[in-house]
Amino acid sequence: MTTSTPTPCHDAFNAGQAFRQSVPLHAGAYKIGDAMRRLARLRQCVETIADKVKRGEKFRDYEDLHCCLGHERGAYLKDMPKLISNTLGEAILPGIAELAADRVPPSEVGHAYRQAERDVQALLWDCEKAHQRLGQGISHEYTAMRQGGSHLLELLRQAEAIGQNALDLVDAHKVAA
Fold first, then answer.
1. The predicted structure's pLDDT at residue 6
2. What is the rounded CA–CA span in Å between residue 33 and residue 65?
């Protein structure tokens, strides 16, 4: 009997893809924009937590941290790699596939999709590593935050970059139109 390594972030990505197949997009830019706002809100939450951790401040139980409350932050941060993965599968990659409806030439859509797919696959493995590390405890992330960094912020920046590249492509063709 072979045991496979669990891949919760890939599972979250695949769940996002499955959802999107049941609710297809008719254009992509609006959905990528929605995903970018979702990722920005996640980033704002992580930045707020990181700022408080770096300053050594205590969290109040019901303090609003943009996406969670103070007492939920550990569980929320641990789920973040899966949230990012789901967003990539449910909105960003399917949105890129439909950019022709946003006046991007099909050949450029194909190229952008292939590049994004490679970037997403690499990012999913980074999400898996982060998820595994967070599963061992949140202390590694808090240590990085105390030092002015964050593994989760890096994942969010990479996901946002994939979405922004697609939106830049749409903008380039709005100017040309």
1. 72
2. 22
| Residues in Cβ contact with 104 at an 8 Å cutoff, skipping those fewer than 6 apart | 112, 169, 170, 173
Which residues lie below 8 Å from residue 75, measured CB to CB, with a gap of 6+? 68
Angle at which helices 106-135 and 8-22 cross, to 10°: 140
Name which of 19, 150, 132, 145 is nearest 82 in CA terms: 132
Please report which helix (H) or strand (E) contains residue 120, including its range: helix 106-135
Residue 2: left (phi > 0), alpha (psi -120 to 50), or beta? beta
Contact 103, 173 (CB under 8 A): yes
Between CA 129 and CA 61 the distance in angstroms is: 29
Closest by Cα among 85, 83, 92, 139 to 112: 92
Query: Residues 68-96: pLDDT tens digits?
Result: 999 999 999 999 999 999 999 999 999 99
Q: Residue 25: which region, alpha, beta or left (left: phi > 0; alpha: psi -120 to 50)?
A: beta
The structure tokens listed for 172 are 């380039």
